[in-house]
Amino acid sequence: MNRASGVLLPILSLPGPYGIGTLGTKARKFVDFLSAAGQRYWQILPLVPPGEGNSPYMSASSFAGNPFFLDLDALAKEGLLTKNELAQAVCPDLDRVNYAQLHKTWTPLLRKVWKRGKTRYAKEFAAFSTQESEWLSDYALFLALREYLDGNMLQDWPIDIRRRNPKWLDPLRKELAEEIAYHSFLQFLFYRQWAELKAYANSKGISIIGDLPIYVSPDSAEVWAHPDLFMLDDELNLSGVAGVPPDAFSATGQHWGNPLYRWSTHRKTGYDWWRKRGRHMARLYDVVRIDHFRAFHTYWSIPAEAETAMEGHWEPGPGMELVKALSEIPGLSLIAEDLGDLDDSVRAFIAESGLPGMNVLPYAFDPVGESAYLPHNCPNNGVIYTGTHDTPTFVQWLFGEASPAERDFASDYLRLREDEGFGWGAVCGAWASPCALAIAPMQDLLGLGADARMNAPGTIGPHNWSWRVRETALNQDVSSRLRHITRTYRRGG
């Protein structure tokens, strides 16, 4: 990886009139903004449909795209929506995603798109359905069944449907054929639009960094279709769940609730499911960040009935076997999210993997010790971040979470000045590091505080996964300043 830089901004956070960022014109304008700013990378969060708490890390699928990212204007130009119907999706709140409102306004429109488009695109849709059959048929059937069963989660489905008993499932598949096709068609539209956006970004010299959540949701097509791959009992109830021990985010640890993998089964199959997942990621993105990479070495196993993560314990993960399986996939370039509770054996494993790891700036300013995250200590083969989707914004950390000694040290080290903007000081510190790649969330470029935080780990609240940038913020003053910093620190701008 050549010395370069980029910006973290999820699709959901893009500006636009329809209540959420989409794959349309505003996304292309953001690509233009990155190009004008001399950037080489655009990092996003998972493209999958969000699940519990609107989190993209609790999705009903590891392969599907979020239909709420569809470009409605493009669909209108194709004659699949009218101008009056588009007006129904307009949302006055430009700063937050209101998911309940989205479901209310978008769902009727997407039904109309299916009704008008299924004949027009029948041939292309059939080809897509065949190409993506390994995951699409199970996913679309899963959603259709969930609606048929009044929105109940998988664990509350009748046992025969949970166990995929053909006597029950085959008649339902026929009965729900139209609903299954509807959900499949939305995926056809999503993947067509995503391919167009990615091609546009690449044509402008911008590579996309995607995200591979290590775990899946307990209420997902994967758990239903491949129960043998997860730690489940005979009735598909979880026998253990994922999380992490007490950490900087929570004194009782984080209880995520995702099912754990049955690694013995994955090993017997040669990690076939992971290879399929990796090939899928290689098609979608130019680079992929593996979420919670340390769980490849050891993972925190929490009893299913436990109320907090404190009752968990460490278990061995798949280790280098899985790293090797993924590294053999053509075109799959990886970044290891190697944050969290690391001991010497985990650090040795990460080093053995050879993957670039992450260095997060707010963790660097120990006023007594010598942090490995201080920019001058960061490795060449690494990625430095001024913050991530899980951390406070830099300004929030500096004035809300840092101790006085940490704040003083950070101010001295980064030579922070209020007139220049504290966020820009963080960007300069990261861009000056020896790391091959430097990334800043859009919030840090704008010097925003707590109101702009993307997610507070271990919590479920209305502000998680909802922040959006105003279009006026993506202006020439910001892009010119970022371009100057990028050129100053020789990151190819």
Order of strands across the widest beta sheet?
9-6-3-2-1-12-11-10
The number of E-state strands comes to: 12
Radius of gyration: 23 Å
Low-pLDDT segments: none
Q: Strand percentage, roughly?
A: 5-15%
Q: Which secondary-structure class do the elements indicate? A: alpha/beta
Distance between the termini: 15 Å
Helical proportion, percent range: 40-55%
Number of helices: 19
> What's the quaternary structure here?
single chain
Major sheet description: 8 strands, parallel
Basic shape: globular
Average pLDDT, to the nearest integer?
A: 96
Per-chain topology:
Elements: E1 4-8, H1 25-36, E2 41-43, H2 72-77, H3 83-88, H4 99-120, H5 122-131, H6 133-148, H7 159-162, H8 166-175, H9 177-203, E3 207-212, H10 221-225, E4 240-244, E5 254-259, H11 263-268, H12 272-284, E6 287-290, E7 298-303, E8 313-316, H13 320-327, E9 334-336, H14 344-353, E10 357-360, E11 382-385, H15 394-401, H16 404-414, H17 422-431, E12 437-441, H18 442-445, H19 476-488
Parallel strand pairs: 1-2, 1-12, 2-3, 3-6, 6-9, 10-11, 11-12
Antiparallel strand pairs: 4-5, 4-7, 7-8
Helix pairs in contact: 5-6, 6-9
